[in-house]
Structure formats: C-alpha cells, structure tokens
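[Meeting: bench + compute handoff]

Bench side (C.D.) handed over the final construct sequence. Compute side (W.E.) agreed to return the predicted structure before the next meeting so the bench team could plan truncations. Sequence as handed over:
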Amino acid sequence: MGILHFFSETGTEGGYWAFQDSRFITKNTTRFTCTKCWAYLDTEADPDSPLQVTHVMPLDEALEEEESGKRRQDCPPDEHNFRPVSEDNWSHEGLHILKDEDVLIIYDKENPDQIVWQGYISLLKHALFAEHASGMWIHADQAGIDRETWANWFFEEYPAKLIKARPRDG
C-alpha cells in the first residue's frame, strides 16, 4: 500500500505520476523551519556537508522577498518558533514512477475499502512543456481516463496499491 502523488524535482522539466510506498514514509521528527524568519533546522544534517539548506519558506514569500530585495531578519537564536517542515518524511527508496503495464488500484480517501479505479497503466506520452494538468506540466496521460480526474487522484494523494510490471527478458 502507499500514496499516489505527482513527482517533480529540478531537472524533470515537469512531473510524473508516481506512487510512494508507505513502508518508506516515516513521521518527521528531524526537519523544522522557524515560522518567523524561515530559518531551517535539520537535527540529522551533516555539518560538514557542502550543501547546507539555511532557509525554507513558502513560494509566495520567497517571490515577495525577491521583488522587494529585502530579506526577513533572522531571529535571535533563542527566539525561533520552530515547526516541522512537513508531517512526514518520504524516502526516495519508496518512490515508484508509474510505468506501462504496472497494475494500479486506487482507493477512495474517505472510504479506503472502496476502489475508485483499477487497471493497467498505459501512458500516452507528451513532448516537454506541451500538456498540463491544473497548471502543472505533465509528461503523460493515462489512456481512457479524463486528465483532471486522473490528476486529482495524484494531487490529492489518494491511497493506492501498486503491482509493478515484470521486467521483460531481452
């Protein structure tokens, strides 16, 4: 079992329909951001790592800071108001980009015993920056399903079960 989601990161030039295996989802107890200055704290980060995240803020606030040229001042060290960045941590180990011939079963969010869709994945691929769902660039549509219906299941992170296609010989 797991959760559907729309996977996109720098370099994907859009997003993929994906499944996150629930075995690789844990409660976030290590990553926090200050609600006043957006300072970032990762209690498990390697202090010698060449890449250090220092601030995490909502996109609208980041754009506002960029336009104005003014950045919020950091709080004094003992005045931060840290909150978890997210409720859960998702490991890349549990990430599965849907592929043709995978079998997917999607369950209703309100009634997890009810199946809303099941079938084989059959992706109709698109050129980069050619198609979107709810304003997000997509790389493919699922054959036989209305795009917005399909996308909603992923954007709303519906529960699901994935049976991966068997690799073909040769």
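W.E. noted at the follow-up: The two ends are 30 Å apart (CA to CA). C.D. will use this when planning the next construct.
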